[in-house]
Amino acid sequence: MATADSSALVIPQLIVGLGNPGEKYNQTRHNIGFEAIDQLARRWGVALSENRKFQGVFGEGRAPKVDKIRLLKPLTYMNLSGQSMRAVIDWYKLPPESVLVIYDDMDLPLGKLRLRLSGSAGGHNGMKSAIAHLGTQNFPRLRIGIGAPKVVAENKDTISHVLGQFSKTEAATVSEVLHLTTDAVEMSLREGIAKAMSLYNNRVVGSE
């Protein structure tokens, strides 16, 4: 399968944060993509509101060096996230490679993020849906580390971990990571995903 060309300048036009709607999922590890979108919206002054056509919370505005940026939080529940993304790219006639998806990753420790131009779903149900509905793996993604559960005896340990909330000690790190995420996204808008990858993939919150 062809992969995205890392030498090509890839500038996001739609930024999607993955999560689950509803009060009980607020501020859980699995919803850190939603939190990233909220942070970007605050930073850029983009008003977010529910858009039934897009099956999500959506906003359009300006970001640094970009005249028009679109932010999306699908309200379809994680496993159907791709439906919402597809509705937006069809409406605006956007190419899949212009969609940057932000989501949680248990394989990364808390305090790290990882940008990629393309790749598999890696077992993440939201990304499985995104790949299925966009019809390609060749779109950028930003994974935010949430760490793995200390004990993984059964699948339920994984589920309770991702659907659990961050501890008070973790919350400060999460806040820093979200600021780092915003910086990485702004760099990708100014100079492309590949440049942001080179600057932010090795950064760890709490270390220089």
Show unreliable segments: 1-6
Gross geometry: globular
Tally of separate domains: 1
What fraction strand? 15-25%
Query: Structural class, please?
Result: alpha/beta
Q: Helical segment tally?
A: 6
Secondary-structure element series: EHEEEHEEHEHHH
CATH fold title? Rossmann fold
* Major beta sheet, strand line-up: 2-3-4-1-5-7-6
| Overall CATH architecture | 3-Layer(aba) Sandwich
Strand segment tally: 7
Residue share in helices? 25-40%
How confident is the prediction overall: mean pLDDT?
89
Structure in words:
This protein has 208 residues and is an alpha/beta fold. It has one domain: 3-Layer(aba) Sandwich (Rossmann fold), CATH 3.40.50.1470. The chain is built from 6 helices and 7 strands; from the N terminus they run βαβββαββαβααα. A 7-stranded mixed beta sheet has the order 2-3-4-1-5-7-6, with helices on both faces. A hairpin with a 4-residue loop joins strand 2 (49-51) and strand 3 (56-63). Helix 1 packs across helix 5, helix 2 runs parallel beside helix 3 and helix 5 (168-191) runs antiparallel to helix 6 (193-200). It starts with 13 loop residues before the first strand and ends in an 8-residue tail after the last helix. The model is unreliable at 1-6 (pLDDT under 50).
